[in-house]
Amino acid sequence: MERTLVIKVCSTCGCEKIKKVRRNRLGKFQGQSYSVPSLEYHECPECGEKVYGREAMRRIEEESPAFSRSRKQKHAVA
Ligand SMILES: [Zn+2]
Questions:
Q1: Distance between CA 45 and CA 74 in Å, rounded?
Q2: How far apart are the first and last CA of the chain?
Q3: Phi and psi (nearest 5°) for 61?
Q4: How much distance in Å is there from the Cα of 34 to the middle of ligand 1?
Q5: What pTM, to 2 d.p., does this model score?
Q6: CA 56/CA 16 separation, integer angstroms
Q7: Ion ligand 1 — residues with CB under 5 Å?
Q8: Which pLDDT tens digit goes with each residue over 15-34?
Q9: How far is the CA of 66 from the centre of ligand 1 (A)?
Q10: Rounded distance, CA 16 to CA 63, Å?
């Protein structure tokens, strides 16, 4: 059974305009910037709240230096 995160209402402002987007996410951790290309997440246009589902979190963890527990080959993102 696959569980899909369904978000209809923004948990921060309560509006119903929150929607799924797919964007490159740029992040920074301790001076190191990283990017997660074409990440799918929910974003609220009203308050800017971003909600990351399980898959999105996994991808962020893969790319973010904050979560780099295991060394892996880093593909260069120019
Ligand atoms: Zn909101």
A1: 33
A2: 37
A3: -60, -35
A4: 25
A5: 0.71
A6: 21
A7: 10, 12-13, 44, 46-47, 49
A8: 999 999 999 999 998 999 99
A9: 26
A10: 30
